[in-house]
Predict the 3D structure of the following.
Amino acid sequence: MSVSESQYVIDDRETPRFRVHRSALVEPDVLEQERRLIFDRSWLFVGHESEVQQPHDFRTRKVGGRPIILTRHTDGSVQVFINSCPHRGMQIETRSEGSGRFLKCFYHGWSFDTGGTLVALPDEDSYGPDFDRHNLCLARPPKVEAYRGFIFLAWTDDIEDLETSLGGVLDILDLFADQSEEGMRVIGGTHLYAAKANWKLLAENSYDGYHAMTTHHRYLAMLKESGKDLSKVFDKSGGPALGWNLGNGHAVIGGADGSHAQNTGLGRDLPTQAALDAQVARRDRFAAKYGEDWANRMFASRNMVVFPNLAIIDLIMGITIRTFYPVSPDYMEVTAWSLQPSDDDPTLRDMRQENFLTFWGPAGLATPDDIEALERCQQGFAAYEHAPWSDISRGMVRDKPNFADELQMRVFWREWDRRMTGTEHPAETPVIPRSGRVAWPYADIEPSSIGVD
Ligand code: FES
Ligand SMILES: [Fe+2]
């Protein structure tokens, strides 16, 4: 094995050692290139179809820095438009969500239906007898595709189809989507917050198993106080938890053994016997429907980052979807939602919703600690010319890196560097392709060989 390197990434398989130059996290030129070479050439997450449940529901947000409207049209189809009036450019809809047959522009009053067609405008006669309203419909992003309710767009036509691009990610999306017989849905509010840190630090943090014991020490102490037996979370009794390369820069860390349905991962224990029973019953149902191997994966945790800026984290105690986008090299905006089974037991739903607020919320017990860590990293980077390298080597010595190793971040950075500099860094572990509802490869690995310190 050799060394592959660029000005940003040194991937040394001999020593082994993996380093990232901090200029990649600081310099404005890098961000300009990222917008062009990464964000404008990737599938970006728009939202979940359950956010526009009924015809004429809409949501607005920015995706890849550009304003969009997500609607459910009269015919039930989900549509994505650019939120900019074909007349003179005003954002058609300024509310973040709502419902209505027509989207009316505040500036001169042009009205569009939820399929994007211009249906009315004041003084239409002024445009003459040949005026065709159909030439002035809402513009659409070049590509919009969805997989099992997860909607993505691309700001280019020149991109492979969504499913090919997602590859092994599709199995993980199945692991979320299969958790309800009536459909998963985004419920509750939206978390909107910002961090004075480079966006890639949040990609890293979203599947960083190594930091939990230290950064979240106070949260874990609180759990212990509440009577939770933390040894069950960290002593490997939950079975092997590994890092996996899903291809194209996507990666996940997660467990393979979800045989203990009562396990709430990093959440507080379930409060009542009824809730425990409901959770066990859910697992039994899914095991009967999909088989034990798949139920084992469903009821184990997972943190996935879909390159470049979508994280979906399932810690059993709740699922959060998170996207983030850079405003400047040292400032990002974050949006997060809670994804839940629509047919959940009420106690389990309350548990998930409470964890979305009190664990993942911007003022929760975990997220502020993470943000503090990322912002202090960014402050440290002010001296990057004199302390230029970050080390992301943990677990390179292992054939099967575990969830507390840094394989998943190296997968991200190798793809990042390929897009930015054209440097090809060979994969470190096999890419796990889409395999269907089967056990993880290496699911039979001995838990005792997982080196969580
Ligand atoms: S800009 Fe929208 S109607 Fe004029
Ligand atoms: Fe964290």
Observations:
- Residues 273-290 form the longest helix (18 residues).
